[in-house]
């Protein structure tokens, strides 16, 4: 089971979108080198206000490129990096992965999936009505967040568009992703 990296993005300042890059460097236990959300402790503004000492489970944000096709059908144009993700993938059901899944990105980098991204009001600030497209309901009526997953860096390395993504599922019972 695997896919590819479609794009990589980072930003050294707080901004909703992140510009695409030729490559990003992942640093173990830290995140994306030079990215505002990198660090061993939480860097998300709202979470920092609550408790700045909590561990950063949101070091690398990944979104599946297929989401852009889905929202395009509803009349929205979204490109890689515009929802604040660091890594855009193709060919992997990111939202269906269990907690603890390892993703090998390129030749060296490995991230561990920690949970779902909590979509925030900034999504509607980016494009009015888009939030409704990234928060949906599954067949049983439960709320389903579609704005990507979060991870921590286990092994550092350089990640580039076109790199393969290999998926390694965790042993034991698979736990569904929850918001982190």
UniProtKB/TrEMBL annotation:
Origin: domain of life: Bacteria
Organism, scientific name: Streptomyces yaanensis
Give the Gene3D superfamilies listed for this entry: PK beta-barrel domain-like
Entries under InterPro entries matching the protein = MoCF_Sase_C, MOSC_domain, Pyrv_Knase-like_insert_dom_sf
- What is one Pfam family matched by this protein? MOSC
Q: Residue ranges of the MOSC domain? A: 18-168
How is this protein named in the record?
A: MOSC domain-containing protein
Q: Where are the transmembrane segments?
A: none
């Amino acid at each position: 089971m695997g896919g590819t990296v479609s794009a990589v993005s980072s930003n050294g300042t707080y901004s909703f979108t992140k510009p695409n890059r030729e490559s990003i460097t992942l640093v173990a236990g830290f995140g994306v080198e030079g990215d505002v959300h990198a660090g061993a402790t939480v860097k998300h503004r709202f979470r920092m206000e609550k408790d700045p000492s909590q561990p950063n489970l949101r070091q690398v944000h990944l979104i599946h490129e297929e989401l852009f096709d889905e929202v395009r059908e509803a009349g929205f144009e979204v490109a890689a990096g515009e929802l604040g993700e660091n890594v855009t993938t193709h060919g992997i059901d990111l939202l269906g992965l269990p907690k603890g899944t390892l993703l090998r990105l390129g030749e060296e980098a490995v991230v561990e999936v920690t949970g779902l991204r909590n979509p925030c009001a900034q999504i509607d600030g980016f494009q009015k009505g888009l939030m409704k497209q990234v928060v949906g309901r599954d067949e049983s009526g439960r709320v389903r967040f579609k704005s990507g997953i979060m991870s921590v860096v286990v092994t550092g390395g350089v990640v580039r568009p076109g790199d393969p993504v290999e998926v390694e599922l965790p042993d034991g019972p698979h736990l569904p992703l929850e918001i982190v």
